[in-house]
Amino acid sequence: MPWHARLQLDYRHESGRSVARFRHEGPLRILQSLYPEGGAICHNVLVHPPGGLVGGDTLSIDIHGAAGSHGLLTTPGATRFYRSEGEVALQDTRIRLDADARLEWLPLEALCYSGCKAENRLRIEAAPGAQLIGWDVTALGLPNANLPFERGSLTQHIEMPGVWLERGRIDASDRRLLASPIGLAGHRCIASLFVVSGTPLGKARRETLLDIARQIADADSLRDSAGATSPHAEIVVLRVLAPVVEPAMKLLRHTWQAWRAELWKLPASSPRIWAM
């Protein structure tokens, strides 16, 4: 039978400290809050014990950042979309940030196994003064395990209503898209890192963020398949294609650390679970 899981996560700023409270239904929850950077920033790990989704499964994640709070959220491993014989497997994430809230949305990659029918949605709403640094990383098949993406499909939806919308569908049968030099050019990892701001970023600030991303990308092995743009005054995006996840994730982590230093004057502080 399909598994349906929901998580409501609320970050609040209380007495100089960001705190996380959550409610859940089904196998989806967060682990203990950690404060490696002090009380102002709350680090959490989002856990889905089954480890993957099959046809008909739904994960609904609702994250709210109250005014002045700062949360950092990651996962202990990849989200896996397994083979489906019928229905779509859905991960639906909604992020709402009140005035002057900050969130770092840093889940590990989504793995699309051959034969999957997957949909991955992300909706971000940011009030004036709120900011988010987040990423989305998707891998098609498992090339290193000789399990290519030969059947199935993925629908990807990322949106800031009224400001930014990216929606696309990848079908394993579309060999032209997967192999063409104006498509994925044979790459099997698609990754984006983005800044979302509830208040328009000034031109100088956007240019600085773009310069940082471009300088890092130009020094990286993926320089020929990476590019940074600002499609709106409230959005800055670094996009990259890679043959596998690891080099893409390395580039995104490096840029994320540089962006948080520029935007928030915060040093690099990777979640502890990434080192395990």
From TrEMBL:
Signal peptide: none
Keywords: Chaperone, Cytoplasm, Nickel insertion
Record flagged with keyword Cell membrane: no
Chief place where the protein resides: cytoplasm
Coiled coil: none
Subcellular location: Cytoplasm
KW Transmembrane (keyword) present: no
Family to which the UniProt record says this protein belongs: Belongs to the UreD family.
HAMAP family for this protein: UreD
The protein's assembly and partners: UreD, UreF and UreG form a complex that acts as a GTP-hydrolysis-dependent molecular chaperone, activating the urease apoprotein by helping to assemble the nickel containing metallocenter of UreC. The UreE protein probably delivers the nickel.
Function: Required for maturation of urease via the functional incorporation of the urease nickel metallocenter.
Protein name in the entry: Urease accessory protein UreD
Species the sequence originates in: Variovorax humicola
Gene: ureD
